[in-house]
């Protein structure tokens, strides 16, 4: 009887494994890793002069796809609809500078963070004496902006709720709203703002660089796919130990040569 029960249990486990192959297994069989991203987040994912999607996270995903022995396919997707697109199988995982938040974690699973960033401010130069931190903006006389669907928007509405808020579909439009004097401050991740103040600021913006939030960025997968999470987490651990991560990080965060390739 014990032998019979053990046989039944093994059969059930085998059938369960077949029924829930997991994202990584599906990717290896297909030969392509499809990643959803909104390529507007410098220097993580962005479009160069030739229309190619490049960036820190893109290179990390290329290394991941190489480790799987498959090709990488980037699926350009609006950020505010990126989680629904994952859940309806438009791609295999999210790789779009997404902050791991508890609210999002109720809908999807996240890998271990591959980098930690924080929200910072780009403000109009004229406000240099009046605005020293996000707290100074929490006043109805100020107008603030960010990209819709991001933690920048969440933070603006939670921590700076007294100010007037107007969001945009992409970062560039929001930054230009401040450059043109229609808004007083742009709220976004530090790596983006440190580039945007020079690239798009037109000498009219100040970068308040001290982050006022803690935001781990991670890859997003459908809930329940723990085998794939295990593989991705092991890949990230290996990349950080063998120098792959440091090489990619230095290319995008310690060097600005890539700016010449942008519009």
UniProtKB/TrEMBL annotation:
Primary residence: other
Q: Where in the cell is it found?
A: Cell envelope
Q: Which residues form the Solute-binding protein family 3/N-terminal domain?
A: 32-256
> GO molecular function of the protein, one example?
ligand-gated monoatomic ion channel activity
What InterPro entries has UniProt attached to this entry?
Answer: Iontro_rcpt_C, SBP_3_CS, Solute-binding_3/MltF_N
| Ionotropic glutamate receptor C-terminal domain span | 32-255
The highest taxon in the source lineage is Bacteria
Where does the record locate the signal sequence feature? 1-21
Known SUPFAM superfamilies for this protein?
Periplasmic binding protein-like II (SSF53850)
Tell me the keywords, alphabetical order. Answer: Signal
Q: Which GO terms describe its cellular component?
A: cell envelope; membrane
Gene3D superfamilies reported in the protein's UniProt record? Periplasmic binding protein-like II
Record family assignment: Belongs to the bacterial solute-binding protein 3 family.
Q: What is this protein called?
A: Amino acid ABC transporter substrate-binding protein
Natural source organism: Pseudomonas kuykendallii
Lineage of producing organism: Bacteria, Pseudomonadati, Pseudomonadota, Gammaproteobacteria, Pseudomonadales
């Amino acid at each position: 009887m014990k032998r019979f029960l053990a046989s039944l249990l093994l059969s059930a486990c085998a059938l369960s494994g077949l029924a829930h192959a997991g994202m990584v297994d599906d990717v290896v069989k297909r030969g392509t890793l499809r990643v959803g991203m909104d390529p507007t987040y410098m220097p993580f994912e962005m479009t160069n002069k030739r229309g190619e999607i490049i960036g820190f996270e893109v290179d990390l995903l290329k290394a991941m796809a190489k480790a799987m022995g498959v090709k990488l396919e980037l699926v350009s997707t609006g950020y505010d609809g990126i989680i629904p697109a994952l859940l309806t199988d438009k791609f295999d995982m999210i790789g779009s500078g997404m902050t791991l938040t508890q609210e999002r974690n109720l809908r999807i699973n996240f890998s271990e963070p591959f980098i930690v960033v924080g929200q910072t401010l780009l403000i109009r130069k004229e406000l240099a004496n009046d605005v020293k931190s996000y707290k100074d903006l929490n006043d109805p006389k100020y107008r603030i902006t960010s990209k819709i669907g991001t933690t920048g928007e969440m933070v603006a509405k939670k921590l700076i709720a007294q100010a007037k808020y107007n969001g945009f579909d992409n970062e560039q439009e929001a930054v230009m709203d401040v450059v043109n004097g229609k808004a007083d401050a742009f709220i976004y991740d530090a790596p983006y703002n440190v580039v945007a103040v020079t690239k798009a600021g037109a000498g009219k913006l100040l970068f308040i660089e001290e982050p006022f939030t803690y935001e781990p960025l991670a890859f997003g997968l459908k809930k329940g796919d723990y085998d794939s999470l295990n593989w991705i987490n092991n890949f990230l651990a290996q990349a950080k130990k063998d120098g792959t991560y440091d090489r990619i990080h230095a290319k995008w965060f310690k060097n600005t040569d890539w700016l010449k390739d942008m519009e």
